[in-house]
Amino acid sequence: MPVYSVKGHKEIINAIDGVGGLGIGEGAPEIVTGSRDGTVKVWDPRQKDDPVANMEPVQGENKRDCWTVAFGNAYNQEERVVCAGYDNGDIKLFDLRNMALRWETNIKNGVCSLEFDRKDISMNKLVATSLEGKFHVFDMRTQHPTKGFASVSEKAHKSTVWQVRHLPQNRELFLTAGGAGGLHLWKYEYPIQRSKKDSEGIEMGVAGSVSLLQNVTLSTQPISSLDWSPDKRGLCVCSSFDQTVRVLIVTKLHKI
Q1: What is the DSSP code string of 34-54?
Q2: E-state strands within 61-181
Q3: Exposed, middle or buried by CB within 10 Å (0-12, 13-18, 19+), for 112?
Q4: Which of 68, 145, 150, 161 has the smallest set of CB atoms within 10 Å of its CB?
Q5: What pLDDT digit, counting tens, does each position of 29-60 carry?
Q6: Measured between alpha carbons, how far is 256 from 254 in angstroms, rounded to an integer?
Q7: pTM of the entire structure?
Q8: Which residues 6+ apart lie within 8 Å of 87 measured at CB?
């Protein structure tokens, strides 16, 4: 029997994420879901039937298919954000403390996967992967009132980038999974200064750079899901459309 069950959405649920349980992130244990019905809902397993937050389009607005959701900024009891990615390239950052939309942008291609480098720290970096083989890394430390967050983009695969996962033991390393069956390991390098003042003296972020460390082709089919082991550095697992689950080891990560 499930310990918690709820009829959450009217249409298919594309994405789910959790925070606050298992000692990851401060505050209440919560689950976030994103659906084709255009809504993003936050659930507390201790509260039956109703979501604790519901982010949906205002009346008259087009409902976009939400493909990915991610928690972040859960570094104390009060602070917490949810980031959602949509089929039209929209990325929206919802502040759960103030129940407000904090930031939004559009990356021109459907957003397949979003992940903060750590959920349980003050927002540091966010990676967004998309159709057409591109991913974007946003520096989340400095938000400019009009320009938002600084970012760097990289053309990674010749096809959709289905997933991104940061290495639990080193947040500057992350793995992307591609529609052509490849995995790419990347390293993010910070700039000398992470922020600068614009012409009006307002702080704005400075994006770093991304370099490819290694890549491997595992299948002729897309790699749809992947995860790192929190205990054993470099141990990971991925699933593919060829009906295969593969367990992999990435060596020498401690030397990077």
Answers
A1: EETTS-EEEE-TTS-SS-SEE
A2: 66-72, 81-86, 90-95, 100-106, 111-116, 125-130, 134-144, 148-155, 161-167, 170-178
A3: buried
A4: 145
A5: 999 999 999 999 999 999 988 999 999 988 88
A6: 6
A7: 0.95
A8: 64, 65, 66, 67, 110, 111
